[in-house]
Amino acid sequence: MNAAVRAVVRTALHHQDLAVFGIIGGYAGLLESNLQRLESRAMANILQRGGTVLKTGRCLEFHRPEVRAQAAQNLRNLGIGGLVVIGGNGSFMGAHLLAQEHNISVVGVPGTIDNDIYGTDQTIGSDTAVNTALDAIDRIRDTATSHDRLFIVEVMGRNSGFLASAVGLAGGAEEILVPESPVPLEKVVQKIQASASKGKRSSILIAAEGQKPGRAYDLAEQLRKRAGLDAKVCILGHQQRGGSPSASDRILASRLGHGAVEALMQGKTQVMIGVQGGKVVQVSLADAATKSKPLDRESWLLASTLA
Amino acid sequence: MNAAVRAVVRTALHHQDLAVFGIIGGYAGLLESNLQRLESRAMANILQRGGTVLKTGRCLEFHRPEVRAQAAQNLRNLGIGGLVVIGGNGSFMGAHLLAQEHNISVVGVPGTIDNDIYGTDQTIGSDTAVNTALDAIDRIRDTATSHDRLFIVEVMGRNSGFLASAVGLAGGAEEILVPESPVPLEKVVQKIQASASKGKRSSILIAAEGQKPGRAYDLAEQLRKRAGLDAKVCILGHQQRGGSPSASDRILASRLGHGAVEALMQGKTQVMIGVQGGKVVQVSLADAATKSKPLDRESWLLASTLA
Amino acid sequence: MNAAVRAVVRTALHHQDLAVFGIIGGYAGLLESNLQRLESRAMANILQRGGTVLKTGRCLEFHRPEVRAQAAQNLRNLGIGGLVVIGGNGSFMGAHLLAQEHNISVVGVPGTIDNDIYGTDQTIGSDTAVNTALDAIDRIRDTATSHDRLFIVEVMGRNSGFLASAVGLAGGAEEILVPESPVPLEKVVQKIQASASKGKRSSILIAAEGQKPGRAYDLAEQLRKRAGLDAKVCILGHQQRGGSPSASDRILASRLGHGAVEALMQGKTQVMIGVQGGKVVQVSLADAATKSKPLDRESWLLASTLA
Amino acid sequence: MNAAVRAVVRTALHHQDLAVFGIIGGYAGLLESNLQRLESRAMANILQRGGTVLKTGRCLEFHRPEVRAQAAQNLRNLGIGGLVVIGGNGSFMGAHLLAQEHNISVVGVPGTIDNDIYGTDQTIGSDTAVNTALDAIDRIRDTATSHDRLFIVEVMGRNSGFLASAVGLAGGAEEILVPESPVPLEKVVQKIQASASKGKRSSILIAAEGQKPGRAYDLAEQLRKRAGLDAKVCILGHQQRGGSPSASDRILASRLGHGAVEALMQGKTQVMIGVQGGKVVQVSLADAATKSKPLDRESWLLASTLA
Question: Partner of B223 for a Cys bridge, out of A158, A247, B229, D121, CB 3.0 to 4.6 A?
């Protein structure tokens, strides 16, 4: 995120007549007019840091029209002509309504580790999250192999199997369970038993958390009951967030942050800056907020072929 | 562990008349005479790998005297005159009994990430585990700070608060809960509220798993009920094992593995090779197997002073 | 590389009638018929390892037609119908000639950290190399900032500024010197002095090694002589190779290795498997071997805007 | 370093009547009275950062008595009663003279990656530097093994082979060249050739930079001329500094920083806080500044036995 903030600030200052303010704490900060002028020098040495120098947080009341009206008023009082929103579907929906109802120019930048935003191949943070999860899986693999054990590793991904699929392919997982394409338990058992019969004595299953974080415990319980398999469970949880961002994420964030300011300068509004086929693109913010991005089935199937 | 295996093998081969066999899969492997001759070249490029090239596993039946008699017979049949056992209390107890009952020379090398072995300041694997857990905590800190949140991070440590204490001091935790020194919930709540009143809006609590892995969930539940605090839970679990070992662990393992062969060459038996005040020492294996190591209270208290 | 080898082997074994041999030590190994049958199980646990389980090396004599004739004969003697070559321009040229002269089916997979292969957006190893270099730069930044110093960091890239440009953008470098677009020394000096006059007291310059590794020392010498600037030099060198591959590299390698076997199964020859706009593609191997890939000027310019 | 600063500040504030100021930029900052009041909150989230929030730098003029008199005057003007100096021999000598000449209470904390300070087993930063160098060596090992090559890796250590010795033992180096115990070139050549004759086709030599950084190039040149050996050179240089500190370094820094304030509170002066045999100790600052610490020959010899 910090890389995107830096890119927005420095691109804007590169055009000499722009001033940039950071909103501290997301929409809640906007409602309290908690803004801070951002200068170029304050952006030094933030590129390598995880988290965000602008704090963040959920703001449920932003769903209410009168609250958004207040937000728009605050922006006008401060003389702010354009808003760059870094976040996911929820943040984009808020921005979209703000723009529609109050004629504020808004541009979205996709930042979520789930990589589940329609209209962009990558979101800021997902490459780092995949690498962090992969580190954990490589370590778990050491134990699985030394102890001939079966592990279930639960990774983030409420509606999306992207992280599970990427991590599973990169980590050589024996099975990947994703929300988009449920696999019956029998098939999972068969696969583990088939592996075992070929002499493979350790396995790692990756499961996206889906609607119910902690489901890996249920799965382990079922494997025990139905097939007598003893599986250890690891929930990666919040460890997948944070940490110094990967090169790829910093570059993506720099490109998208830069693109957001360019879009505002071109008079665009209600667009999200994404990347498709390697190119920076502008897509409808409403689409980004509402449409769902399909799973990359190629990676998911390839992981299975190579397991 | 691999560093210790390498040190044992290469030290033994350095004395020209010794041959070395690795037992594959711990005591269970010994019962099946699953041994493998270990040459110097096979030790190349294992120093940096997590896990162990000799597999491992629990062997509950080793508690029975007749099973140990079989193990001793297997060793004699193979002409093996000395046994180096890398592990924790359980492994040491087995080795101690094997030595007492069957006059086998045994030397222990402390290898457990909990660092809870009596007679040695450090055990192989603990420095790596502390650094791995610290990495996770640094990442969680990014989120805690960005979102103004309270986190409970559960680290390994069944009977020992070593890992929790080290990680908590190094990671700047606001509170560290260890089995050796239980803190009443009221005190924890008071501390969090005191921090909050000083303007600190994010906190990390470290909890050793103790006798009940998953206790962090209970703690979070209690904080919610009694004090209305919303705490996120992270269970680091098996991710703390494995991974490329730290420099300090590789050096320790090299010194202890070397010391184990030296001890066998000196005709010693039933000793554990440890490190005390920076020096390699030999201590009674029975003591190592049975006595408990006190918590380093200095670190635990210092963490609290500096939080 | 190991991820690509694994993908080739497992994809091939997935099609039941294929057998796979690994050539140990590149073309030199082929000349000595140093091949090894590769089974699925041998591919376990290599995904996370740097280097290559098949060794590698230069083979200058492969430039001679009679040597290639011998290589083709060896392949025929072994009953090998298709060859997958993982490497860069030189390896591809050898493969291309082998195919043209002796009617051997060859497919190329781009593996070089310089990311300078025509026909593919990414090469295997480049993402890992960028992240490794970035780690070093983040550490150097700590010292640069603490000591108010100027650093010149030399990264790999004989003909290509890709690595320099990516690392420079991700690392917040003040200036990036690439072979494709030489910058006069005066401009570099001006930029450093302009930064200094804005209060910036530490800077990092990234220089691609170009045709002359060690040129960073010359540059530092010139900055000293002409502008009285005291610059420290770091040559990253071979540290940029090796190491556990990033998730992105493992996924890319898996996709390309899989694509290579698919291409052979389709009867294709003299193609390289690349990735363009996120899709796996087949391009002419001759083009990949001979055409040069232009610098991504967008990244290079963006780094300058954001510095 | 930041962990030590944090420990000094928070320990001091724990004793309610103390105020703490940080000197920005070392002795040069002291001469300009460039001080900053340090509060507890400002110490949040610095534990995991490399470098130092207080900047640093050499100050050659501090060798002159009249300059030290000015520094003492500045401290008195600010009402500062005790000075904690984090650094190496040079910084300690300055502090020692300041104390002797002007009756200022000074306490030293050893912070240098070379681990070459008399009176302490460990210095702050050395464990991190060893791990950073080891990472690089593990990566280089991948290339050395894949390409059957000989590498010379130059690590820091002007007068001390500590870093070389630790890294060499942990990294499985075939030979370690340290300033304290020069090895004739013939012996190095013999060892490499002996390894080669046993079938070992790749080797890594570690060389401490000694009085002449870049000596690894000379060594490679000599190996080429005298023995026809082709060695690649890697100079780790400034990459060994910086980076997020290891757990061990953060704990050491916390203990020493805490000990420094305790010492000042006890009325001590001209002592260095060190660690010996795991215990925090106070040693004469003059000794720490002037006496030299012998090489840990045990590690150095052990590396050779295990290579």
Answer: B229
SS3 D266: coil
HSE value, Cβ hemisphere, 13 Å, CA-based, for C267: 0
Check D49 against C142: CB less than 8 A apart.
yes
Q: Taking CA atoms, what residue in B is nearest to D169? A: B251
B145 interaction partners in chain A (CB closer than 8 Å): 51, 55
C chain contacts of residue D145, beta-carbon cutoff 8 Å: 51, 55
Let me know whether A95 and A147 are in one domain.
no
Place of tokens 């370093």: D1
Residues D39 and D74 in one domain: yes
Contact A57 B143 (CB under 8 A): no
pTM of the model as a whole = 0.95
B189 token code pair: 């709540």
Interchain pair A239, B146: CB under 8 A: no
Q: Which residue has the tokens 């703490």?
A: D20
Q: Which residues of A are catalytic?
A: 114
What's the CA gap between C292 and A91, in Å, rounded? 43
Whether D6 and chain B come into contact, CB under 8 Å, resolves to: yes
The reported pLDDT for the residue numbered D16 is 74
Structure confidence at residue D192 (pLDDT): 87
From the list D138, D235, D243, the residue facing C235 with the nearest CB is D235
Determine, yes or no, domain membership for C301.
no
Q: Which residues 128-157 of C have a C-beta within 8 angstroms of A?
A: 130-131, 134, 138, 141, 145
The count of other CB atoms within 10 Å of the CB of residue D266 is: 10
pLDDT at C252: 97
Question: Which residue has 């009977």 as its token pair?
Answer: B159
Decide which of D213, D241, D269 is a domain's last residue: D241
B188-202, B207-221, B277-291, C26-40 — which is least confidently predicted? B188-202
Give how far A40 is from chain B: nearest CA, Å: 21
| pLDDT class of C115 with cuts at 50, 70, 90 | very high
CB distance from B306 to chain D under 8 Å? Answer: yes
- On whether the CB atoms of residues B89 and B58 are closer than 8 A, the answer is no
Instruction: Output the domain CATH number for residue D190.
Output: 3.40.50.460
How many domains are there within chain B? Answer: 2
Integer Cα distance of D108 and A79 in angstroms: 53
User: Does some domain include residue B32?
Assistant: yes
Q: Which residues of C touch D141 (CB under 8 A)?
A: 242
Distance, in Å, from the CA atom of C274 to the CA atom of B34, rounded to the nearest integer, reads 46
Name the residue among C51, C135, C235 with its Cβ closest to that of D142: C51
Average the pLDDT over C196-202 and give the result: 80
**Chain C, window 243-262: residues with a beta carbon less than 8 angstroms from a chain A beta carbon:** 244, 246-248, 250-251, 254-255, 258
Same domain as C254, residue C107: yes
Contact B49/A at CB under 8 A: yes
CB contacts, 8 Å: D142 with chain C: 49-51, 241-243
Measured from the Cβ of residue D76, the count of other Cβ atoms closer than 10 Å reads 13
DSSP, collapsed to helix, strand or coil, labels residue A35 as: strand
Task: Provide the residue type at B184 as one letter.
Answer: P
> Where is D101: in which H helix or E strand?
helix D89-102
Other CB atoms within 10 A of residue A277 CB: 11
Range of the domain at D137: 127-241
The answer on A228 and A276 residing in a single domain is: no
Q: Are residues D95 and D140 in the same domain?
A: no
Enumerate residue ranges in chain D where pLDDT < 50.
none
C302 contacts on A by Cβ (under 8 Å):
254-255, 258
Q: Do B91 and B120 fall into the same domain?
A: yes
> C131 is written with which tokens?
């992240």
Amino acid, res. D174:
E
CA distance B72 to A203: 33
CATH code of C12's domain: 3.40.50.450
Residue pair D303/D169 in contact (Cβ under 8 Å)? The answer is: yes
